[in-house]
Structures are given as C-alpha cells and as structure tokens.
Amino acid sequence: DCVVYWMRMEDMRIEDNTAFHRASERAQEFGVPLVVLFVLSPGDYKIHDRSTKRIDFMLRNLRYLKPRLHELDIPLHIVSYDRRLSIPKRLVNDVFPSLGAKHLFANIEYEVDELRRDIAVVKLGREKGMDVRCLHDRLIVPPGRIKSQAGKPMSVFSPWQRAWAKLLAAEPKLLNLSPSPKANLESVKKDERFAKLFDDEIPDSVEGFECAERKQIAEIFPEGTETAKELLRRFLHTKPRKTQFQIVSPLSEGAQESKKESRVSQYQTGRNLVDGDNSSRLSPYLASGVISGRMVLDEAKKYTGGKLESGRDTGVGMWVQEVSWRDFYNHVMSTWPRVSMGRPFLEKFADVQWEVNEEHLQAWKDGKTGYPIVDAAMRACKARGWMENRVRMVSASFLVKSLMLDWRLGEKYFMESFIDGDLAANNGGWQWTASTGTDPQPYFRIFNTLTQSEKCDPNGDYIRYWVPELKNLKGKAVHDPYHQMPSSEFKKLGYPAPIVDHKKSRERALFRYKNVGEKE
Ligand code: FAD
C-alpha cells in the first residue's frame, strides 16, 4: 500500500500545497509510504503550445525539488508518456499497481483537456478500488465560489473583484497556508519497490523542447521556491532599479532596501513603465506553482500589518488586485470553457474579417515592424521569454488592431514563447485586447502605439537596449525614427520603415469591428 501525490507542472512546490499536504496526512494516518509522481508528456506540451523555456524551467524545478524531497525520504518518481491520451490507462493499469498505490491525490487543473484526463483517472482508479482525490489549490478563491446576487456567474472584473475581496474578508481561512508534508519513515528505503524510485533520473531535456537559451534564461529566472520568495521580498522591500529590463540575474546585485520607497509602494505608476524592474516578475513562479497565490498574499498582508489591502488606493492594494486577475481569468476559463477552445467570449466577434499576411506575422514575431516599442517588446520576448504587462498589451494590440491579424495567432505565439505561458491569463489578455473577451477594451478604443511608447518608456532606454539599430538616437526620434528623421538618415539605420500606417489601420479595424459588432 502507498499514497501517491501526482505533482503537475502547475504546482511545483512543497510548501502550501493542498494535495501534497493531504496526501502526507493520509500516508501518516495509514502508516504507509508517500510517493511523488511526475508525468512527462511531450505530446501534451506540443498540443498545448508549451515553450521550450517553460519546459526547461519545469525540469530545473524538478531538479531543485528532488533533493529536498529526498531529505524527507520521499521519492520523486518520473514517468514519461508521449501519447497524452494514454496517460489515464497507463497510470491506473501500470504505475499505480506497480507501487501498490491505493490512494491518489492531485490538485485540480482547470483547463478542459486536463479536466477530461482527470475525470478518466478518477473513473478508472475508482473502478480499481482506489481512493482518488482532486482538490482545489491553484487559486485563492476556487472557481464557482463567486456569483452575482442572482446566483449567476459574473463576467465583469470590477464587481467580481469587489466580491473576491469581500469573500476573503469574510472567510480569511481561504488565505491559510497548508502545512508542509511530513517525512516518510526511513524504512521506505528498505522496500525494494520504493528504494529504486530514489534513483529516478530527471532528463536533461524533453525531446522537441530543447531550450537553446537555457543558460541565459536560468540566470534571469533561477528555479526554486527560495528564489520566488526572495523576488517577492525584494518587490516589497527594495527600491526599483532602472534599466533592469536587461539580461541580468534579478538576484545578482544588492538592491537598495527601503519599505517606504519599495517597488510595491510605487506600483500604481511603476506597473505602466517598462524602463525598470517595477513589477514583481513572479509570473513564471506563479504559473508553475513554484510559489502559491496564498504565499504571495500572505506576505502582502504582513507588509500592511496583517490586513489584506485590495483596491486602487495604494500600491500594495493595486498589486493585490492585479494578483486577483489570475483568479478571475481562471474563473472565466472554467465557467465558459469555450474561451480555451479558440472561441471568442463575445460570439458576435467570431466573424471579424482578419487579414491573411504571413509576412506581417513574421515581422511582428521577429520585432521588425518599424514600430520601435513593439519591436523592442517582441525581441525581449524572444530573448527572455517574458514581457512587462504594458508591452504585452501594446504588442498584442498592434497585431490585432493595426495588422488586423487573428488574435489566436498571437495567443499561440505568446504561449510558445513565454516562460510564464498560462492558458487562462494569456487567453484573457488576448481576448481583452481583441475586444472579444468578458470585460474587454471596447473595440473602438484603439491603442496609439506611439503615445503608448512615449508613456511607458519615457527616455527610450528600453527601446535602445532591445533595438540596437536605434541605440544612438536621442529624444523623441527613438519612438518614431521614420517620421522624425530625414529619410537619408533613416535609411542608414538599417531599421525597417513602419509596415502599416497607424491612421489607416485604425480606420480599417474600426470598420471591420463595426461591421460585426453592431449587428445583433
Ligand atoms: P505583477 O505586476 O507583479 O503581478 C503579480 C502577479 O499577478 C503576476 O505574476 C501574475 O501572476 C498576476 N497577474 C498580473 N496581471 C495579470 C493579468 N492581467 N492577468 C492574469 N494574471 C495577472 N500572465 C501570465 O502569467 N501568463 C501569461 O501567459 C500571460 N499572457 C498575457 C498575454 C497578454 C496579451 C496580456 C495583456 C497579459 C498577459 N499576462 C500573462 C498577464 C500579465 O501581463 C503578466 O502576468 C505580468 O506581466 C507578469 O509580470 P509580473 O509577474 O511582474 O506581474
């Protein structure tokens, strides 16, 4: 007999992990070993557009966890199945019987394919007499808890967020951290079946997902819960550093300590700027569950002396509100699963007429659109697998409203590129931008790329760093070299002219959206 905790690529931590904790309790209660199982599935990563950076981050975190689990005498058992649809049968027919497992615990993944997989595991497992438990853990407030007064699901963020904050005030236990799992009895190593699991190897890479920039990315986003906690501490207690958008380790230089002038205290303005380390950079860690949302809010609560602030009035309140977007988009995805199947939330926008233009799509991906802020962001995306929120919005808006290319192409490319790629947040961000989402930017409000550029990168440092063709430009020219420089000078830069005209493309977008958006 033994208990299995099935760790997924969304809950890669030991602390505050609901299923892991409950599995440990069960193992203690029955006096049986606890095994952590991790299933590698290249077929799954492919179909879900996982990036090489995210898969590499996953492997690095497994390597971080293994010795820490071994300290608790808990083996990390790794299996690999390329055919994702075979996973339920393989686990229930092969893996669990080979361990004599009678109890299985896992945290719920709310994506449709994962839910279907888990339903199959529950069904097959129970048929074989196993006790299978799938538990809420990913979010602070589980999907389905927040409803309107009429008992309906809510699709507009602001009232939903107020209800979220109210619920947390009424039920503070939602923020409680789960105790860490207890160690196995050392005798687990004397049983041949379990002893050999301690030798399970974590592969160096997953075929088809080798990460070419691995060393560099490991510098920028080091693995492990300890790193995530230090990033959070710095966000709450140190001053922002200018030009930290460059490729440097976030932990390398001593950041200046200051609670009063900390990054979180300046978040209301900082979050819209891209010329420094103004936000927490925790998204890769939250997306892979290296740190939990509860752990993050626990620290935010300590920062404000024990009370959870949430709202636009303070930096920390604003940040907590931002963290709640993560819950919101998961709530949207689980309430209206069509959004994760390539459907717009607002069905009336299903028929917007998109351009088909491979060259434009490629120019966008390569950062060669002739719009410096878009190009800087897209090149940063390629190099780091991460972008600041403001430039995610600007570059996404450029693809959809200026190039008039289907938002799903951009959604897929971001997933394939980001180290923090997350279906709910990414889809939410794209549908907001494309004006097709639950709480969208109205279709007639179209970002002016140039104005956005001047606001989010006032000195042009971000652009100059990521677009070296423009590194010697001074003043406003860096935002719009084509219009600000004599054409003979512009030609010498070796930088592309704008691939679309802002004014004309804006009119095209308005026309196309109006065509479908205003017919009922
Ligand atoms: P902070 O500003 O420090 O915020 C803290 C945490 O709150 C983030 O780490 C994140 O977990 C959460 N959060 C903040 N804003 C949002 C948001 N709008 N939606 C959901 N969660 C949020 N975020 C992802 O984690 N993965 C994605 O794949 C992703 N794709 C996006 C695509 C588009 C088009 C847009 C506009 C946004 C996307 N976001 C995504 C949301 C947001 O841009 C990132 O979470 C944020 O930039 C990460 O930086 P940070 O950790 O420093 O955030």
TrEMBL record:
Residues at which FAD binds: 267, 279-283, 319, 322-329, 420-422
Biased composition (Polar residues): 264-273
Keywords: Chromophore, FAD, Flavoprotein
UniProt key word Transmembrane: no
Recorded superkingdom: Eukaryota
Cofactor remark from the record: Binds 1 FAD per subunit.
Entry's Gene Ontology BP terms: circadian regulation of gene expression; entrainment of circadian clock by photoperiod; nucleobase-containing compound metabolic process; response to stress
Residues in Photolyase/cryptochrome alpha/beta domain copies: 2-140
GO molecular function, one term: FAD binding
UniProt region (Disordered), positions on chain: 251-273
Site-annotated residues for Electron transfer via tryptophanyl radical: W354, W407, W430
The keyword rRNA-binding is annotated on this UniProt entry: no
Cofactor(s) needed by this chain: (6R)-5,10-methylene-5,6,7,8-tetrahydrofolate; FAD
GO cellular component, one term: cytoplasm
Entry's family note: Belongs to the DNA photolyase class-1 family.
Name recorded for this polypeptide: Photolyase/cryptochrome alpha/beta domain-containing protein
Span covered, complete protein: 161 to 680 of 683
